[in-house]
């Protein structure tokens, strides 16, 4: 089953951007300056995690202030959260685990979704919903690149987004692997920097990450 044009367009943007910043916002007032730092630094994307009460409003602000940015929701654990995220302007859904109800709702409603997986069984379950791109989480603790290589040698049509434990040092080897469409991580958008309002520092870290993508992928 081929991806719909809407889903494929989002997956293409994930691939093109290369590193997707995973953000935790405790206060929606930080959404605009953070969005600015991401745009100016050269990673025009954010996975805004539904771990805080500010997530929904932060997505709304980022999606409306930065129409060219790929803004989505992460840590989505229920269909209700999918609805709230999409209503706020999220263009994709990411989850730490594989929940069939969440995936089915997204597929039925043409919402790009990347469920979290860590085993071949979970990946096959996702593939049987028609998905060919999944998150691999938590990547480093689950065997990292070695495990991705072993699994994708069998699941040949699957592309993976490793997240969890990725940083500026180890992201290069992940991005070099053709089975990896993008990597996710929080290292350039750490909560303490957001809390301290250090958006220039965030922008610099984002720029360094964007340069890594350019260097690896040209
Ligand atoms: C997460 O869901 O926390 C993301 O995977 C980010 O992981 P990281 O903080 O290790 O980059």
Short description:
This protein has 218 residues and is α/β, with parallel strands linked by helices. It is built from ten helices and nine strands.
Task: Map the helices and strands.
Elements: H1 5-17, E1 19-23, H2 31-41, E2 45-49, H3 55-65, E3 70-74, H4 79-88, E4 93-94, H5 100-108, E5 113-114, E6 116-117, H6 120-127, E7 133-136, H7 144-154, E8 159-162, H8 171-175, E9 183-185, H9 191-195, H10 199-217
Parallel strand pairs: 1-2, 1-9, 2-3, 4-5, 6-7, 7-8
Helix pairs in contact: 2-10, 3-4
Structure write-up:
By secondary structure, this protein is of the alpha/beta class. It has ten helices and nine strands. It has helices spanning 5-17, 31-41, 55-65, 79-88, 100-108, 120-127, 144-154, 171-175, 191-195, 199-217; strands at residues 19-23, 45-49, 70-74, 93-94, 113-114, 116-117, 133-136, 159-162, 183-185. The strands form three sheets. It has a four-stranded parallel beta sheet, with helices on both faces. Strands 6-7-8 form a three-stranded parallel beta sheet, with helices on one face. Helix 5 (100-108) links the parallel strand 4 and strand 5 (113-114). Helix 2 runs parallel beside helix 10 and helix 3 (55-65) runs parallel beside helix 4 (79-88). It starts with a helix and ends with a helix. The model has no long low-confidence stretch (mean pLDDT 98). The structure holds 3-phosphoglyceric acid. The site of 3-phosphoglyceric acid has 11 residues, from strand 9. 3-phosphoglyceric acid binds at residues 22, 96, 137, 163-166, 184-187.
């Amino acid at each position: 089953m081929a991806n719909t044009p809407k889903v494929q367009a989002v997956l293409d943007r994930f691939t093109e951007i290369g590193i997707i910043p995973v953000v935790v916002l405790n206060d929606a007032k930080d959404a605009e300056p953070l969005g600015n730092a991401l745009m100016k630094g050269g990673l025009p994307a954010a996975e805004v995690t539904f771990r805080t009460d500010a997530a929904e409003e932060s997505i709304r602000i980022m999606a409306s202030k930065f129409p060219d940015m790929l803004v989505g929701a992460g840590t989505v654990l229920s269909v209700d959260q999918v609805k709230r995220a999409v209503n706020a302007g999220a263009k994709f859904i990411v989850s730490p685990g594989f929940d069939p109800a969440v995936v089915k709702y997204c597929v039925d409603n043409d919402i790009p979704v990347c469920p979290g997986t860590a085993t071949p069984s979970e990946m096959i379950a996702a593939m049987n919903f028609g998905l060919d791109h999944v998150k691999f989480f938590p990547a480093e603790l689950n065997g990292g690149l070695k495990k991705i290589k072993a699994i994708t040698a069998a699941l040949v049509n699957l592309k993976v987004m490793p997240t969890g434990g990725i940083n500026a040092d180890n992201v290069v080897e992940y991005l070099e692997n053709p089975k990896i469409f993008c990597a996710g991580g929080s290292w350039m958008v750490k909560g303490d920097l957001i809390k301290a309002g250090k958006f220039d520092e965030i922008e610099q870290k984002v720029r360094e990450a964007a340069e890594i993508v350019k260097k690896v992928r040209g």
